[in-house]
């Protein structure tokens, strides 16, 4: 179906803009969606981005030391390999530049609407369309790809007295570069992926650094190295070397994911983690405080060569407890201990258990997706589609995360999404909606598959688990299986409605 045909068939009021496909979000997955859709001949599309710049998490996170924790050759688009990474683990400025280069390379600027925030997406049953209420007016789309991302909305802890802290307070994903840290007493709350990058960067300049650790996590070496000019020339001149480097990095990640599929196997790695701790933390008291009591891999592994040594510096104090309250400049730990700080940095992660995009999607029955997920748990069919949400696709939806590049996962989903839209167009189908039976069967199989995994059986409480203790984040099987399941749109598992005047379903 051509763009002209779509516009002619679905002409509405002057205030409405009609498109065949709307993509929500111009981060990495949203940009991949635009490239893949256009590559498949689906050109009547728009990408809606609420910010004034593309980039998603790599636009928002600008804290000191911000970098990817997946090797750069894998953390890049398959359709746009980059021979010019400066190192194996690229920094935030490089990643943002790569994203903007992708937009220029694939001429996407014309389909991206910046400063256009989705307020609500509503399925209009009588129109068989999605009506998107945005800050720039309404859009009407036959298909919607929600690419809002996982690491999107900062999670602010509900701490008594936080609002009354007299110094600067900001989340790691909203770093305030106007705040001077040199010579100040700084407290970092949390010891997750962002904190392990921030702490070594700011430790040399602050007067004193307090690190609040609710629970320790396994920290493993970051096998990083610079790409020499000679190596970059080799990668540019011989694309096969890029494919080999990407393949080698991918093999390492797949092997790790395989080891962590079963808790009994992952436990064999724990002695190696303790050996690394002995090498990096000579102080036995500090080492005991940072040694996890759960199996390596139960929580997301943290990659750093400098975080643990930084905790041992003279101007750093590890507070091995959660922050419980704020009383003026005094920060009260869960054990009652107190420290005084001038600046408070919240490394408290993101709203994964309650994805903000779910508050903006209204299903066929009028209920918000967030209401449905709150009553059960976040669920989707093959991490992509949900009953009651026809012609809608979630990128990086529930139960898709594994130890691999999120880009690889999103691209696998996009193969499925593109095939779905092309199938609907070719067969004259106006509505595609996953059936309840395969949806339920798939999610039950996912939970059975996760049961023996280290994520469920590693002895920790992680962000992989919701309030009910149900794992709604991770994929229980291999990347190969994920790609196989998403390689073909399985029309037989969907309810369909033909376009008006087309008769029975093909």
UniProtKB/TrEMBL annotation:
Return the Gene3D superfamilies for the record. Answer: FAD/NAD(P)-binding domain
InterPro entries with a match to the protein in the record: FAD-bind_Monooxygenase_sf, FAD/NAD-bd_sf
Lineage: superkingdom:
Bacteria
Instruction: Name the chain's protein.
Output: Predicted flavoprotein CzcO associated with the cation diffusion facilitator CzcD
Origin organism of this chain? Amycolatopsis arida
